[in-house]
Amino acid sequence: MPHIFNQKNVSFQLRQSPIPEFSWHTSPKLAEIVKSKHLQFDIRSLDPGKYSYPYHFHRNAEEIFVILFGKATLRTPDEYVELSEGDIVFFEMGPQGAHQLYNHTQEPCKFLDIRTNIGLDVCEYPDSGKINILPFKEIYKKADRVDYYKGEDKVSKKWGNKVEKSKK
């Protein structure tokens, strides 16, 4: 059954971070309402002088913004560009898909945020050197990265005499 979302049936909730510059209004999780299996989508409204999420990219999700009303400046790895009503922007997976919005105008900017959801995602934040394991929201510093075999050098002690028993 099709689901139609519009101004009459979509409400917005303010999402205010501890850092005042990051603030937006968002719809309820529309994908949950329709029980979508592979898409996540929300309508967001960015107030004047506010930034969307911190500058980031996804390792396992593609994302699309559709500007419904107003204007905003988009930051990408290569440029800053003004978006306006009717613009559609695709963000690929990986560092080249990094993005962030800033509302440089005096009017709200409403946009549809659509992204794929195929299980786990890793979101990276180049400005702060963090990684976020989604959907769990486990956030770590990328600088803490270690070698794959770190701490694995005493594997035989962890097995103890079980190896000898299995040989018999």
Structural class: mainly beta
Biggest beta-sheet profile: 6 strands, antiparallel
What is the CATH superfamily classification of the domain at 13-119?
Jelly Rolls
- Helix content percent band: under 10%
Strand order of the largest sheet: 1-2-3-10-5-8
CATH class of the domain at 13-119: Mainly Beta
Assembly annotation: single chain
CATH architecture of the domain at 13-119: Sandwich
**Rg calculated over all Cα atoms:** 21 Å
Number of helices, where a helix is a run of at least 4 consecutive DSSP H or I residues: 3
Q: Which whole number gives the mean pLDDT? A: 94
CATH fold assignment of the domain at 13-119: Jelly Rolls
What does it look like?
With 168 residues, the chain is mostly beta strands. It has a domain at 13-119: Jelly Rolls, CATH 2.60.120. 10% of the residues lie in helices and 38% in strands. It contains 3 helices and 13 strands. The chain has a 6-stranded antiparallel β-sheet with strand order 1-2-3-10-5-8. Strands 4-11-12-13 form a 4-stranded antiparallel β-sheet, with no helix packed on it. The chain has a 3-stranded antiparallel β-sheet with strand order 7-6-9, with no helix packed on it. A hairpin with a 3-residue loop joins β12 (130-134) and β13 (138-141). 15% of the residues are buried. The mean pLDDT is 94.
